[in-house]
Amino acid sequence: MRDRRTDGSITYALRIRIAGSDERVQLGNTADGWDEARVEAARRQQLAKIELGLWTPGARSIGEAYEEEPTFRELATDWLEARKQNPAVGLRTTDLNDWQLRRYLAPFFGDLLLSQITPDKVDARVLAQLLAADYLPSVWIADEPTQA
Protein backbone atom coordinates (compact mmCIF):
# COMPACT_ATOMS: atom_id res chain seq x y z
CA MET A 1 0.00 0.00 0.00
CA ARG A 2 1.15 3.52 -0.79
CA ASP A 3 -0.04 6.69 0.90
CA ARG A 4 1.06 9.96 -0.68
CA ARG A 5 1.67 12.65 1.95
CA THR A 6 1.02 16.36 1.57
CA ASP A 7 4.78 16.97 1.55
CA GLY A 8 5.06 14.75 -1.56
CA SER A 9 6.67 11.80 0.22
CA ILE A 10 5.18 8.31 0.08
CA THR A 11 4.54 6.10 3.10
CA TYR A 12 4.57 2.35 2.44
CA ALA A 13 2.73 -0.42 4.28
CA LEU A 14 1.81 -4.04 3.69
CA ARG A 15 -1.74 -5.35 3.98
CA ILE A 16 -1.83 -8.92 5.20
CA ARG A 17 -4.95 -11.05 5.17
CA ILE A 18 -4.52 -14.40 6.89
CA ALA A 19 -6.75 -16.66 9.00
CA GLY A 20 -9.55 -14.09 9.17
CA SER A 21 -7.21 -11.30 10.18
CA ASP A 22 -6.67 -8.13 8.16
CA GLU A 23 -3.44 -6.48 9.29
CA ARG A 24 -1.58 -3.39 8.15
CA VAL A 25 2.18 -3.53 8.69
CA GLN A 26 3.85 -0.12 8.47
CA LEU A 27 7.15 -0.14 6.57
CA GLY A 28 8.46 3.38 6.16
CA ASN A 29 8.55 6.59 4.17
CA THR A 30 10.53 7.75 1.16
CA ALA A 31 12.16 10.30 3.49
CA ASP A 32 13.57 7.30 5.41
CA GLY A 33 14.97 5.71 2.26
CA TRP A 34 12.05 3.44 1.37
CA ASP A 35 11.41 2.80 -2.32
CA GLU A 36 9.61 0.16 -4.42
CA ALA A 37 12.59 -2.23 -4.38
CA ARG A 38 12.91 -2.07 -0.60
CA VAL A 39 9.14 -2.56 -0.21
CA GLU A 40 9.28 -5.62 -2.47
CA ALA A 41 12.13 -7.08 -0.40
CA ALA A 42 10.13 -6.46 2.80
CA ARG A 43 7.07 -8.09 1.20
CA ARG A 44 9.07 -11.21 0.31
CA GLN A 45 10.56 -11.33 3.82
CA GLN A 46 7.12 -10.96 5.42
CA LEU A 47 5.71 -13.70 3.17
CA ALA A 48 8.55 -16.02 4.20
CA LYS A 49 7.80 -15.35 7.88
CA ILE A 50 4.14 -16.19 7.30
CA GLU A 51 4.99 -19.39 5.44
CA LEU A 52 7.39 -20.47 8.21
CA GLY A 53 4.84 -19.68 10.90
CA LEU A 54 7.02 -16.96 12.42
CA TRP A 55 4.50 -14.14 12.06
CA THR A 56 1.48 -13.63 14.28
CA PRO A 57 -1.38 -11.24 13.50
CA GLY A 58 -1.33 -8.24 15.82
CA ALA A 59 2.17 -9.02 17.11
CA ARG A 60 4.19 -6.05 18.24
CA SER A 61 7.83 -5.57 17.46
CA ILE A 62 10.43 -6.21 20.15
CA GLY A 63 10.90 -2.49 20.64
CA GLU A 64 7.20 -2.00 21.33
CA ALA A 65 6.78 -5.09 23.48
CA TYR A 66 9.53 -4.43 26.05
CA GLU A 67 10.47 -1.30 27.94
CA GLU A 68 13.90 -2.77 28.75
CA GLU A 69 16.01 -5.26 26.84
CA PRO A 70 14.50 -8.71 27.46
CA THR A 71 16.32 -11.80 28.60
CA PHE A 72 16.47 -14.74 26.25
CA ARG A 73 13.92 -16.58 28.43
CA GLU A 74 11.42 -13.68 28.28
CA LEU A 75 11.74 -13.34 24.53
CA ALA A 76 11.62 -17.11 23.93
CA THR A 77 8.51 -17.46 26.11
CA ASP A 78 6.74 -14.66 24.24
CA TRP A 79 7.83 -16.11 20.89
CA LEU A 80 6.50 -19.54 21.83
CA GLU A 81 3.17 -18.10 23.01
CA ALA A 82 2.84 -16.17 19.73
CA ARG A 83 3.53 -19.38 17.77
CA LYS A 84 0.86 -21.21 19.76
CA GLN A 85 -1.64 -18.49 18.75
CA ASN A 86 -0.68 -18.72 15.07
CA PRO A 87 -3.20 -20.94 13.25
CA ALA A 88 -0.55 -21.88 10.65
CA VAL A 89 1.60 -23.63 13.30
CA GLY A 90 0.49 -27.03 14.58
CA LEU A 91 0.32 -28.21 18.18
CA ARG A 92 3.03 -30.86 17.71
CA THR A 93 5.36 -28.19 16.31
CA THR A 94 4.88 -25.86 19.28
CA ASP A 95 5.25 -28.78 21.72
CA LEU A 96 8.57 -29.65 20.05
CA ASN A 97 9.66 -25.98 20.13
CA ASP A 98 8.79 -25.83 23.84
CA TRP A 99 10.83 -28.95 24.59
CA GLN A 100 13.79 -27.72 22.55
CA LEU A 101 13.79 -24.36 24.32
CA ARG A 102 13.59 -25.94 27.77
CA ARG A 103 16.11 -28.71 27.03
CA TYR A 104 18.80 -26.96 25.00
CA LEU A 105 18.55 -23.18 25.05
CA ALA A 106 16.98 -21.87 28.26
CA PRO A 107 19.39 -23.61 30.66
CA PHE A 108 22.38 -21.85 29.12
CA PHE A 109 21.01 -18.64 27.58
CA GLY A 110 17.84 -18.09 29.65
CA ASP A 111 19.07 -15.37 32.01
CA LEU A 112 21.25 -13.57 29.46
CA LEU A 113 20.14 -10.34 27.81
CA LEU A 114 19.95 -10.62 24.05
CA SER A 115 22.92 -8.30 23.66
CA GLN A 116 24.98 -10.68 25.81
CA ILE A 117 24.47 -13.64 23.47
CA THR A 118 27.45 -13.61 21.16
CA PRO A 119 28.79 -16.11 18.64
CA ASP A 120 31.55 -16.94 21.15
CA LYS A 121 28.98 -17.85 23.81
CA VAL A 122 27.08 -20.03 21.34
CA ASP A 123 30.31 -21.72 20.24
CA ALA A 124 31.32 -22.30 23.86
CA ARG A 125 27.96 -23.93 24.59
CA VAL A 126 28.20 -26.22 21.57
CA LEU A 127 31.77 -27.21 22.45
CA ALA A 128 30.81 -27.83 26.09
CA GLN A 129 27.98 -30.13 24.97
CA LEU A 130 30.27 -32.00 22.59
CA LEU A 131 32.90 -32.34 25.32
CA ALA A 132 30.32 -33.62 27.82
CA ALA A 133 29.10 -36.18 25.27
CA ASP A 134 32.70 -37.26 24.56
CA TYR A 135 32.35 -36.38 20.87
CA LEU A 136 35.49 -34.27 20.59
CA PRO A 137 38.77 -35.81 19.46
CA SER A 138 41.31 -36.31 22.20
CA VAL A 139 43.71 -33.80 20.58
CA TRP A 140 41.32 -30.93 21.35
CA ILE A 141 41.75 -29.39 24.80
CA ALA A 142 39.02 -27.18 26.19
CA ASP A 143 39.95 -23.87 27.78
CA GLU A 144 38.78 -22.97 31.30
CA PRO A 145 35.50 -21.16 30.34
CA THR A 146 34.44 -24.05 28.11
CA GLN A 147 35.11 -26.64 30.82
CA ALA A 148 33.06 -24.65 33.38
Principal-axis shape equals elongated
**What percentage of residues falls in helices of 4 or more residues?**
40-55%
User: Rg from C-alpha positions?
Assistant: 21 Å
| Spatial strand sequence of the major β-sheet | 1-2-3
Number of individual domains: 2
Which structural class best describes the helix and strand composition?
alpha+beta
Strand content: 5-15%
Largest sheet: 3 strands, antiparallel
Give the N-to-C terminal Cα separation.
53 Å
Count of DSSP strands = 3
What is the quaternary state of this protein? single chain
Low-confidence stretches: none
Helix segment count?
6
pLDDT average, as an integer?
81
Question: Helices and strands, in N-to-C order?
Answer: EEEHHHHHH
Structure report:
By secondary structure, this protein is an alpha+beta fold. The protein folds into 2 domains: 2-52, no CATH class; 69-147, no CATH class. The chain has 6 helices and 3 strands, in the order E-E-E-H-H-H-H-H-H. A 3-stranded antiparallel beta sheet has the order 1-2-3, with helices on one face. The longest helix has 19 residues, at 91-109. The N and C termini lie far apart (53 Å).
